[in-house]
């Protein structure tokens, strides 16, 4: 039984030792990191933060030194007591960075601290009184500071609220511990026969450990915890912003940014100044009351490029880092610092976010990292809105151009055909009535006139077909290209029954597209092959599809005609571009120019391979993989 009790006691002592090591490690780490931060970036805020944790670190250091050098125990006892007593005063100084502390309370806390430290001179004469004063002072000031931190943890939202909730655990546990200690001490003084309860002695070390963990997570949390808080705030902001339509004004997005920034990091007020790139000046979009004198933010023309080089936000100190007009405006809010964060998108700079802070913020870099996320989201939304607006303007311009094209097409169809009909009609009348009086040369001239008017009419028809293709609505469905090819072949043979052409079509060649448009494209490709094989005694035309895997089907129209020089292949699909003379092969040069926009409208591509006197092959796809 005794051995079991000793084992349990030994395990308990081991756990107590581990808690003591953990507590010391946490406070030493906090003291070291805040000391380094103050040394690297000296400021009043970093000094106050460092003193809070340096005091606790010194207390634990004194405890270790007392164990190592027992002969100096009294000196180290005073060091430990002094370090502990000044901790709540330094904590009170730190609290004022997010909550105003009345001046009389600050002075009273300082006077109380001095009085307690003076009482240590009488420690050897009467140890009870200094002990009561020290514990009472710690309990009261630490309790008040903890109350402010807890109140801030409840009322303050956003990133700072997350930190304060954890810091309130650290400060609150210490305050609770010393309040209980004060009550017990008073009870023992009034009735010395009552011993200190065992539960209090065993709970001191765990409470210090939990307090250290709370302080650590509140003031120096791991990166993954900070990122989790940032993503949570960013997620909430994005959810609110997502309710905004891209048709919303720039003002609506700026107001969302100002509101979200205040909710995330706190502050007295937030406003956004808009950058007008055309005038190279700032204007107010989200204004404050009293209003900001925008003149103090205007930029000389020679510094326009310079101000947008730095895309990082920063904390400006008032009044030394701002213009006098801005400083006067900030004083209306009692602000001592101001966040300035540029709003820069991928397309252009949009403006600046300004947030006034009553004191220097506790966690500047964390605030700037979060604000950068919020600003980037708004800048992206502004970029998208700008692109959508530009796209809408281009669409409107395209609709106007299409209407003008329709008007032009009507003019071509009606106004140009009338004189052509007149020329052709008078030419035919001359041939009918005066053929006997005209010599052979005159008749030849009249026939040339008729042939050219006919060609001009065909050219007008082709131009109208080309203009209609880009404006025609598409209705996609499965299209049997084999069936279309046979219909086209039948029509061509009916026009030239004397031709002997071997026409080979692969069975069940199917594609996804607009049946009417594909028929027009196939008609021009097959007609092209039919025409350029006219000089062949044994003409051959093949239509099929190449074997592919997980890619767009590649259709082809192959012939054994005259071919062409691949050097000029880039001219094939341009309007009025011809690689052969009209004397050899008649035509308007529009056929292939019609094919290309049809294929492009389907999301496909068209190209050709050929060799002189060895035929040509035209390939095309219909963008079916993308469509699926």
Textual characterization of the structure:
This protein is an alpha+beta fold. The protein is built from 17 helices and 12 strands. The protein has a 5-stranded antiparallel beta sheet, covered by helices on one side. Strands 7-9-10-12-11 form a 5-stranded mixed beta sheet. A hairpin with a 4-residue loop joins strand 4 and strand 5. Helix 3 packs parallel to helix 5. The radius of gyration is 44 Å and the shape is elongated. About 1% of the residues have low confidence.
Short description:
The protein has 628 residues and is of the alpha+beta class. The chain has 17 helices and 12 strands.
Topology as a string of helices (H) and strands (E)? HHHHHHHHHEEHEHEEHHEHEEHEEHEEH
Mean pLDDT: 80
Helix percentage range: 55-70%
Shape summary = elongated
Main β-sheet: number of strands, strand sense, barrel status? 5 strands, antiparallel
Oligomer: single chain
Count of helix runs: 17
- Radius of gyration based on Cα positions: 44 Å
What is the beta-strand fraction? 5-15%
Low-confidence stretches: 4-12
- The SS-based structural class is alpha+beta
Secondary structure: number of strands: 12
Give the N-to-C terminal Cα separation: 79 Å
């Amino acid at each position: 039984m005794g051995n079991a009790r000793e084992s349990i006691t030994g395990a308990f002592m081991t756990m107590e030792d581990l808690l003591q090591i953990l507590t010391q490690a946490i406070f030493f780490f906090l003291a070291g990191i805040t000391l380094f931060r103050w040394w690297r970036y000296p400021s009043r805020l970093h000094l106050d933060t460092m003193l809070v944790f340096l005091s606790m670190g010194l207390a634990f250091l004194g405890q270790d030194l007392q164990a190592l050098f027992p002969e100096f125990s009294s000196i180290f006892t005073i060091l430990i007591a002094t370090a502990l007593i000044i901790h709540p005063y330094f904590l009170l100084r730190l609290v004022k960075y997010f909550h105003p502390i009345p001046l009389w309370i600050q002075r009273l806390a300082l006077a109380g601290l001095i009085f307690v430290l003076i009482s240590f001179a009488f420690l050897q004469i009467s140890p009870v009184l200094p002990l009561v004063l020290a514990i009472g002072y710690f309990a009261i000031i630490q309790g008040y500071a903890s109350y402010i931190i807890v109140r801030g943890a409840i009322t303050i939202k956003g990133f700072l609220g997350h930190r304060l909730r954890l810091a309130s655990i650290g400060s609150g546990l210490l305050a609770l511990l010393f309040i209980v200690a004060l009550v017990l001490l008073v009870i023992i003084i009034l009735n010395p026969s009552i011993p200190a309860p065992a539960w209090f002695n065993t709970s001191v070390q765990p409470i210090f450990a939990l307090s250290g963990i709370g302080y650590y997570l509140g003031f120096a949390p791991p990166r993954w915890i900070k990122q989790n808080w940032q993503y949570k705030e960013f997620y909430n902001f994005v959810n609110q912003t997502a309710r905004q339509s891209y048709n919303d004004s720039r003002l609506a997005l700026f107001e969302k940014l100002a509101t979200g920034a205040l909710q995330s990091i706190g502050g007295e007020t937030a406003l956004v100044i808009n950058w007008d790139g055309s005038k190279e000046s700032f204007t107010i979009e989200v204004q404050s009351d009293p209003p900001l004198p925008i003149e103090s933010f205007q930029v000389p023309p020679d510094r326009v490029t310079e101000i947008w080089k730095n895309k990082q936000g920063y904390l400006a100190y008032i009044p030394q880092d701002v213009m006098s007009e801005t400083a006067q405006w900030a004083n209306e809010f009692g602000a001592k610092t101001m966040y300035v964060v540029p709003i820069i998108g991928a397309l252009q700079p949009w403006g600046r976010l300004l947030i006034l802070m009553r004191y220097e913020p506790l966690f500047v870099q964390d605030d700037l990292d979060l604000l950068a996320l919020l600003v980037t989201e708004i800048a992206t939304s502004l970029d998208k809105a700008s692109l959508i607006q530009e796209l809408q303007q281009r669409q409107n311009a395209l609709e106007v151009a299409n209407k003008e094209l329709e008007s032009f097409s009507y003019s071509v169809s009606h106004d140009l055909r009338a004189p052509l009909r007149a020329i052709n009609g008078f030419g035919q009348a001359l041939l009918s009535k005066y053929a006997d009086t005209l010599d052979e040369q005159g008749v030849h001239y009249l026939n040339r006139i008729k042939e050219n008017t006919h060609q001009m009419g065909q050219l007008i028809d082709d131009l109208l077909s080309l203009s209609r293709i880009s404006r025609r609505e598409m209705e996609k469905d499965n299209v049997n290209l084999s069936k279309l090819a046979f219909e086209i072949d039948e029509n061509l043979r009916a026009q030239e029954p004397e031709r002997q052409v071997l026409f080979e079509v692969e069975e069940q060649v199917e594609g996804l597209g607009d049946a009417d448009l594909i028929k027009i494209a196939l008609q021009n490709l097959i007609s092209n092959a039919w025409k350029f094989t006219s000089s062949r005694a044994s003409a051959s035309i093949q239509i099929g599809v190449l074997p592919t895997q997980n890619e767009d089907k590649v259709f082809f129209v192959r012939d054994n005609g005259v071919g062409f020089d691949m050097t000029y292949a880039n001219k094939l699909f341009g309007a009025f571009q011809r690689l052969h003379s009209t004397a050899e092969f008649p035509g308007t040069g529009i056929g292939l120019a019609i094919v290309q926009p049809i294929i492009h409208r389907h999301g496909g591509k068209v190209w050709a391979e050929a060799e002189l006197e060895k035929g040509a092959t035209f390939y095309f796809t219909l963008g079916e993989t993308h469509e699926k």
